[in-house]
Amino acid sequence: MGRLAICPGSFDPITYGHLDIIERGASIFDEVIVAVFNNQSKNPLFSVEERMSLIKESTKHLSNVSVDASAGLLINYAKQKNAQAILRGLRAVSDFEYEMQITSMNRKLDEEIETLFMMTNNQYSFLSSSIVKEVAKYKANVSDLVPEPVEKALQQKFK
Fold first, then answer.
1. Which of 58, 70, 75, 144 is most open to solvent, judged by the fewest CB atoms within 10 Å of its CB?
2. Distance CA 44, CA 56 (A)
3. Over the chain, what is the mean pLDDT?
4. Is 129 a catalytic residue?
5. CATH number corresponding to 4-126
6. Partners of 88 in beta bridges
7. What span, in angstroms and rounded, lies between the C-alpha atoms of 30 and 45?
C-alpha cells in the first residue's frame, strides 16, 4: 500500500499557488487526492463540479493525483480514504494560526493521520483565490496566477 495524502481546500478557483503545493506533494507521496470541500463561510463563484473539473484539467500532467469532493469533516474523509497525511499549504504567518487550530482538532479526532505543512513558493505567497477572483472581475490579466483552463473559466464567469 502506497503513501496517500489528502490535499484539501475550497479551490475556488485553483491557483498556481495551489498547484505548486499539489505538484510538490505528488513528488513526495505515492498518491495525492485533491479534495474539494465546500466552505460554508465562503460564497463560491464556481460550483463544486466546476472546481473539480478545473482541478482535473490543471493536474492532468500528474499521474498520481486524483480529484474528489466531500461535504463532511476532513478527518473523517481522510480516514475513509486510508490516508496517512493531510497536506496543507502555507503562504504566510497569517495562515499559521488558522491552520494550527484545524490541525489540533484533527489530531484530537485521529492522532494517526499526520498533517504536513508546505510553504508555497515565494512567488505565490501573496496569491489567494479571493484575490484572483477580484482581479479577474475587473478584466485584469490573471494568466500568471492561474492555469489556462481557470483563466478561461474566469473570463466566462465575468463576461
1. 144
2. 18
3. 93
4. yes
5. 3.40.50.620
6. 117
7. 32
